[in-house]
Specification:
The complex is a heterodimer of chains A (228) and B (235). Chain A is of the alpha/beta class and 228 residues long. Chain A has a single domain, classed as Glutaconate Coenzyme A-transferase. Helix content of chain A is 21%, strand content 27%. Chain A has six helices and twelve strands. In chain A, the strands form two sheets. In chain A, strands 1, 2, 3, 4, 5, 9, 10, 11 and 12 form a nine-stranded mixed sheet that branches. Chain A has a three-stranded antiparallel sheet with strand order 6-8-7. In chain A, helix 5 crosses helix 6 (177-183). Chain B has a single domain (13-223), classed as 3-Layer(aba) Sandwich (Glutaconate Coenzyme A-transferase), CATH 3.40.1080.10. In chain B, strands 1, 2, 3, 4, 5, 6, 9, 11, 12, 13 and 14 form an eleven-stranded mixed sheet that branches. Chain B has a three-stranded mixed sheet with strand order 8-7-10, with no helix packed on it. Chain B has four helices and 14 strands. In chain B, helix 2 runs parallel beside helix 3. Chain B starts with 12 loop residues before the first strand and ends in an 11-residue tail after the last strand. The longest helix of chain B is centred in the N-terminal third of the chain and has 10 residues, at 21-30. The chains are: A alpha/beta (228), B alpha/beta (235). The interface between A and B is large, with 49 and 42 residues.
């Protein structure tokens, strides 16, 4: 059953040291900024973080990395013009990196939430990222075995939740939200607004409430660019 | 290099000057069929969109989760929740749809997209693609969606300069840079020529500012005539 809490800090309070935490978002779109800030304030460390990137600028995930709270990051694209905190930690040996092709990352997350014990994918076959992995020829095509990727906690952002945690998203901010919510033992979602149960068209629900454990309403999340 | 005979190659020379970047983008756009579903990657290939005729009904996919992507957003149309794979604000066209990341890559991996257009460091005549890493020691590996895009669509097109800044050819017998995908590229658009890659060979489709003989001098790959036409050629 979905629990509603008043503050972002309350929503992340159960995250323990050493936890694997999925963080949604692709760029600014869908980034649960307030939940990440709350995780920083909460203070848990030794984390394994799953995100598409490795932080940008000095805020959010980048700040979490700067503070030395992240022991390992699983992502597709850690090297960006403003990912200096990751680069610094990585160069100093302070953070481990697992680079995963973006589609494999998404499918591994989906597989974990769907109870799939691994899958054969053509992506990455014959490349350095498939080294040491089991391969198989199926129907004349070569595939690589990839394993599911689960988490203790997922922090994601959606647009609207009803009273039972059914979620809708907004445009490309949907990105990793639905699959991360399903792949985590405990999924925490920040939403821009909540509505009465029954107010969402059941046909329009994207993430059914069964995948949602904790919801916090954060009316107008500040845009990344507006934070100094 | 000079041992490759090109006398038998009947290759149309389409322009007296090499193509510039817009020219390459225009050449790619001209070859995209009406009604196709297309992914334009990030960076240079996104320029192809500027040369598509809206009347042709080409639908653009962006792997962060959208079909029906419109042009880049400007001014008050910028919406932080509506971006492309390069994280640039874009717009939506009538008929657009949104989906999550796993669905978006399933759509691509499952062969539902007709064409993907990518940049490259190197392409091998056999279709291998290298575009994600130069393999420099100490460099942080970052792949993004490159490996998924390379092998997903029905056809993968590459657009690039034929020669690197140091003059080394980028269409090569074997890639020396780390691979992104194996045997996945079907066509290569460059400033000097367009190639179809098939059956392990580079078939010259057309040249720009150069003739086939001069082209062969620049490359270490064996060249063949245009696909279909060469089968009747002697030897």
């Amino acid at each position: 059953m979905t629990r509603f809490v008043e503050t972002a800090l309350e929503a992340v309070r159960s995250i323990e040291d050493g936890a694997t935490v999925m963080i949604g978002g692709f760029g600014v779109a869908g980034q649960p900024v307030e939940l990440i800030d709350a995780l920083i304030e909460h203070g848990a460390g030794g984390l394994t973080v799953v995100n598409n990137n490795a932080g940008n600028g000095d805020v959010g995930l980048a700040r979490l990395i700067q503070l030395g709270r992240v022991e390992k990051i699983v992502c597709s694209f850690p090297r960006q013009s403003d990912s200096w905190h990751f680069e610094e930690q990585y160069a100093a040996g302070g953070i481990r990196l697992e680079v995963v092709p973006q589609g494999n990352l998404a499918e591994r997350i989906r597989a974990a939430g769907a109870g799939i014990g691994g899958f054969f994918t053509p992506t990455g076959f014959g490349t350095a990222l498939a080294e040491g992995k089991e391969t198989r020829r199926i129907g004349g095509r070569d595939y690589v075995l990839e394993m599911p990727l689960a988490a203790d906690v997922a922090l994601t952002k959606a647009q609207v939740s009803d009273g039972v945690g059914n979620l809708t998203y907004r445009k490309t901010a949907r990105n990793f939200g639905p699959i991360m919510a399903a792949a985590a033992a405990h999924s925490v979602v920040q939403v821009a607004r909540t509505v009465e149960t029954g107010a969402l068209d059941p046909e329009a629900v994207v993430t059914p409430g069964i995948y949602v454990d904790t919801v916090v309403e954060i009316p107008a999340p500040e845009a990344e660019g507006a934070r100094a | 290099m000079t041992q490759h005979s090109t006398a038998g190659l009947a290759v149309p020379r389409r322009s007296d000057e090499p193509l510039d970047r817009e020219g390459i983008a225009r050449a790619v756009a001209a070859d995209i069929p009406r009604g196709a579903f297309v992914n334009l990657g990030i960076g240079q290939p996104t320029r192809v969109a500027d040369h598509l005729d809206p009347a042709d009904g080409v639908t653009l996919h962006t792997e962060n989760g959208m079909l029906g992507m419109g042009p880049e957003a400007t001014g008050d149309r910028i919406d932080p929740d509506l971006i492309n794979a390069g994280k640039i604000p874009v717009t939506e066209l009538p008929g657009a749809s949104y989906f999550h990341h796993a669905d978006s890559f399933a759509m691509m991996r499952g062969g539902h997209l007709d064409i993907c257009v990518l940049g490259a460091f190197q392409v091998a005549a056999g279709g291998d693609l290298a575009n994600w890493s130069t393999g420099a020691p100490g460099a942080i590996p970052a792949v993004g969606g490159a490996m998924d895009l390379a092998i997903g669509a029905k056809q993968t097109f590459v657009m690039m300069s034929l020669l690197a800044k140091d003059g080394a050819p980028k269409l090569v017998p074997e890639c020396s840079y780390p691979l992104t995908g194996v045997g996945c590229v079907s066509r290569v658009y460059t400033d000097l020529a367009v190639f179809d890659l098939a059956e392990g060979r580079a078939h010259v489709r057309q040249t720009h500012g150069i003739d086939a003989g001069e082209l062969a001098e620049l490359l270490e790959v064996e060249l063949a005539g245009p696909l279909g036409a060469d089968r009747d050629a002697p030897g």
